[in-house]
Amino acid sequence: MTILGGDLAAPLVDETFGHLGSIEELRAPLSGKRVVVTGGAGSIGGALAVALITDPDRTAPVIVIDTSERGVAALSNWVTALGMSANLQVVVADVSDRDQMDEVFDRIAAEVVVHAAAVKHVGTCEANPRLAQRINVDATRILLEQSALRGVTRFVLVSSDKATSRVNVLGRTKYDAEVEVAAAAVRGLAASSVRLPNIWGSSGSVIELWRQSIALDLPVTLFGPETTRYYQSVYDTVRILLLLATHRETAAGTTFVVSEAVQLSLAEVLERVAADAGNELEHRVERPRPGEIAHERLTSPDETYAETPWNGILGLVRA
To answer: If residue 252 lies in a helix (H) or strand (E), which one and from where to where?
Structure first.
């Protein structure tokens, strides 16, 4: 998975979902399926796409939809170099464009859809709420409609732990997207959502920003050393998405909630990044940015959850 970059390929955080099985085992049921990954040139979607594309038993293409021409080109070039170009079909498109999605789904014959495309950073969403609504909610509705119309057998929305507290635009739009998924399931689509914690080293994350500062020999900015976040490795993320894209238990409109992750203060995260860099890092402390909260949480006393067949994953019980 070196195409994903060092922070993702070698995350400095423990894996906690090895009990679900190996990625090789979990991807096997999808080897012959035409799987669509939106946001497939990004961190989460890209990790899933790479896991599927590199399956030596794959007999159907993975269709990556992304607006990033650069990201799609990098992925295509890497897959071609591996001699696996038959395993990938790329589409540069905007998932919030209804007419374009109608044209795309008309020709790709999708069987499974994993919707990872999103505006996923708190600051971006706070500054651009209309964009967050269009990409996180409206696009989800469009993709659900297309999936139902085209006979897709599984639909999985990648949601966020920010949807648990919903104190910012990102959390509210992701929660609204979950509601869209639940409604589509009531209408008959085998659709579900999953709330993921922060993925170690994902694009635009504080870890990536710090590494850029290190490369430029600049001090890093720490938004509150005591601030805590939950982290998960990219490998655990891929395991969970593969699991939910294949099991029948996931087809009832449930929002699955990852309830086990590594909780770290930002000071501890900085220590890990500094140790990996091999030196102490100069840093400055600034006030949290708009929309940021001191302590994120994976579950809430205001919500009800049910056990699932998998340790560390709960099911949200909607009223």
So the answer is: none
d(CA 68, CA 75): 11
- For residue 201, give the 3-state DSSP assignment: coil
DSSP 261: -
Bridge partner list, 295: 228
Please give the Cα distance from 154 to 251 (Å, whole number): 7
pLDDT tier, 269 (very low <50, low <70, confident <90, very high otherwise): confident
Number of H helices, E strands in the chain: 13, 14
* Sole residue written with tokens 């990872």: 116
d(CA 201, CA 232): 10
H/E segment holding residue 156 = strand 154-160
Element (H, E) at 230: strand 228-232
d(CA 63, CA 97): 17
pTM > 0.85: yes
Confidence class for position 250, pLDDT limits 50, 70, 90: low
CB 285 within 8 A of CB 226: no
269: phi then psi, degrees, rounded to nearest 5? -60, -45
* Selection from 87, 88, 115 nearest residue 244 by Cα: 115
- Cβ proximity of 314 and 247 under 8 Å: no
How far apart, in whole angstroms, are the C-alpha atoms of residue 50 and residue 119?
A: 21
Decide: 227 and 266 in contact? Cβ < 8 Å: yes
